[in-house]
Design a protein that fits this description.
Layout lengths: L10 H4 L9 H26 L4 E11 L3 E10 L6 E8 L5 E9 L5 E9 L6 E8 L4 H4 L2
Antiparallel strand pairs: 1-2, 2-5, 3-4, 3-6
Protein name: DUF4307 domain-containing protein
Keywords: Membrane, Transmembrane, Transmembrane helix
InterPro entries: DUF4307
Amino acid sequence: MPTETPARLPEGRYGKPSRPAPKRWRVWALSVAGLLVGGAVAVLAYANLGTAPIEGQRRLFTELPGNAMEITVDVTRDEPELPGVCIVRVRDITGAESGRREVLVPPGESSTAVTAVIKSAGRPVTADVFGCSYEVPEYLSSP
Protein backbone atom coordinates (compact mmCIF):
# COMPACT_ATOMS: atom_id res chain seq x y z
CA MET A 1 0.00 0.00 0.00
CA PRO A 2 1.60 3.27 -1.06
CA THR A 3 1.73 6.12 1.50
CA GLU A 4 0.15 9.33 0.47
CA THR A 5 1.71 12.64 1.29
CA PRO A 6 -0.66 15.33 2.43
CA ALA A 7 -1.46 17.82 -0.25
CA ARG A 8 0.11 21.23 0.20
CA LEU A 9 -2.06 24.19 -0.62
CA PRO A 10 -0.66 26.90 -2.85
CA GLU A 11 0.74 29.61 -0.52
CA GLY A 12 -0.16 32.57 -2.71
CA ARG A 13 -3.82 31.61 -2.80
CA TYR A 14 -4.54 30.66 0.81
CA GLY A 15 -1.85 32.55 2.77
CA LYS A 16 0.84 31.18 5.02
CA PRO A 17 0.00 28.28 7.28
CA SER A 18 -1.05 29.46 10.76
CA ARG A 19 1.27 29.18 13.73
CA PRO A 20 0.57 26.53 16.31
CA ALA A 21 -1.52 27.58 19.32
CA PRO A 22 0.47 29.05 22.25
CA LYS A 23 1.42 26.63 24.96
CA ARG A 24 -1.03 26.42 27.82
CA TRP A 25 1.52 27.33 30.51
CA ARG A 26 2.28 30.63 28.73
CA VAL A 27 -1.37 31.60 28.77
CA TRP A 28 -1.60 30.84 32.50
CA ALA A 29 1.65 32.66 33.29
CA LEU A 30 0.57 35.79 31.41
CA SER A 31 -2.87 35.69 33.07
CA VAL A 32 -1.35 35.45 36.56
CA ALA A 33 1.12 38.25 35.78
CA GLY A 34 -1.73 40.45 34.55
CA LEU A 35 -3.73 39.81 37.71
CA LEU A 36 -0.74 40.63 39.92
CA VAL A 37 -0.04 43.89 38.10
CA GLY A 38 -3.72 44.84 38.21
CA GLY A 39 -3.89 44.09 41.93
CA ALA A 40 -0.79 46.18 42.63
CA VAL A 41 -2.24 49.13 40.69
CA ALA A 42 -5.51 48.84 42.61
CA VAL A 43 -3.75 48.82 46.00
CA LEU A 44 -1.62 51.84 45.10
CA ALA A 45 -4.64 53.74 43.79
CA TYR A 46 -6.61 53.03 46.96
CA ALA A 47 -3.71 54.13 49.17
CA ASN A 48 -3.13 57.36 47.24
CA LEU A 49 -6.64 58.26 46.15
CA GLY A 50 -8.71 56.94 49.05
CA THR A 51 -10.16 59.14 51.75
CA ALA A 52 -7.69 61.29 53.66
CA PRO A 53 -7.33 60.76 57.43
CA ILE A 54 -7.95 64.49 58.02
CA GLU A 55 -9.79 66.83 55.67
CA GLY A 56 -10.81 70.46 55.73
CA GLN A 57 -13.81 71.91 53.89
CA ARG A 58 -14.43 75.65 53.62
CA ARG A 59 -17.73 76.58 55.23
CA LEU A 60 -17.67 80.34 54.76
CA PHE A 61 -15.38 83.32 54.28
CA THR A 62 -15.85 87.04 54.93
CA GLU A 63 -13.77 89.96 53.71
CA LEU A 64 -12.44 92.15 56.51
CA PRO A 65 -11.04 95.69 56.33
CA GLY A 66 -7.29 96.05 55.82
CA ASN A 67 -6.80 93.38 53.12
CA ALA A 68 -7.75 90.47 55.35
CA MET A 69 -10.26 87.67 55.18
CA GLU A 70 -11.85 85.45 57.82
CA ILE A 71 -12.41 81.80 56.93
CA THR A 72 -14.30 79.08 58.78
CA VAL A 73 -13.24 75.52 58.01
CA ASP A 74 -15.08 72.30 58.87
CA VAL A 75 -12.45 69.69 59.78
CA THR A 76 -13.24 65.98 59.71
CA ARG A 77 -10.68 63.49 61.01
CA ASP A 78 -10.42 59.82 61.84
CA GLU A 79 -8.27 60.34 64.98
CA PRO A 80 -9.90 63.14 67.00
CA GLU A 81 -7.51 62.65 69.95
CA LEU A 82 -4.61 63.97 67.84
CA PRO A 83 -4.02 67.64 67.00
CA GLY A 84 -3.93 68.62 63.35
CA VAL A 85 -3.04 71.56 61.17
CA CYS A 86 -4.82 73.03 58.16
CA ILE A 87 -3.28 75.43 55.67
CA VAL A 88 -5.73 78.09 54.53
CA ARG A 89 -5.09 80.72 51.88
CA VAL A 90 -6.62 83.73 50.16
CA ARG A 91 -6.51 84.65 46.49
CA ASP A 92 -6.68 87.97 44.70
CA ILE A 93 -8.74 88.88 41.63
CA THR A 94 -6.22 87.24 39.26
CA GLY A 95 -6.45 83.93 41.13
CA ALA A 96 -2.94 84.20 42.53
CA GLU A 97 -2.36 83.26 46.16
CA SER A 98 -1.98 86.49 48.13
CA GLY A 99 -1.90 85.17 51.68
CA ARG A 100 -1.50 81.91 53.58
CA ARG A 101 -1.73 80.73 57.16
CA GLU A 102 -1.42 77.50 59.14
CA VAL A 103 -4.24 76.91 61.63
CA LEU A 104 -3.97 74.54 64.59
CA VAL A 105 -6.86 72.09 64.99
CA PRO A 106 -6.79 71.08 68.67
CA PRO A 107 -7.76 67.58 69.80
CA GLY A 108 -11.48 67.20 70.26
CA GLU A 109 -14.42 65.93 68.24
CA SER A 110 -14.07 63.97 64.99
CA SER A 111 -15.83 66.84 63.23
CA THR A 112 -15.08 70.40 64.32
CA ALA A 113 -14.93 73.95 62.94
CA VAL A 114 -11.97 76.34 63.16
CA THR A 115 -11.89 80.02 62.22
CA ALA A 116 -8.86 82.05 61.18
CA VAL A 117 -8.03 85.50 59.83
CA ILE A 118 -5.64 85.59 56.88
CA LYS A 119 -3.73 88.75 55.92
CA SER A 120 -3.40 89.37 52.19
CA ALA A 121 -0.84 91.23 50.07
CA GLY A 122 -3.69 92.80 48.07
CA ARG A 123 -7.45 92.80 48.18
CA PRO A 124 -8.59 89.17 48.67
CA VAL A 125 -11.61 87.89 46.76
CA THR A 126 -11.79 84.26 47.94
CA ALA A 127 -10.41 81.92 50.57
CA ASP A 128 -9.93 78.17 50.50
CA VAL A 129 -8.32 75.23 52.26
CA PHE A 130 -5.00 74.16 50.77
CA GLY A 131 -4.80 70.96 52.86
CA CYS A 132 -4.75 69.41 56.32
CA SER A 133 -2.35 67.09 58.11
CA TYR A 134 -1.56 65.49 61.45
CA GLU A 135 2.06 66.69 61.17
CA VAL A 136 1.77 69.80 63.35
CA PRO A 137 4.81 72.10 63.24
CA GLU A 138 6.52 72.57 66.60
CA TYR A 139 5.88 76.33 66.68
CA LEU A 140 2.10 75.72 66.49
CA SER A 141 1.99 73.04 69.19
CA SER A 142 4.10 74.83 71.80
CA PRO A 143 2.09 76.75 74.44
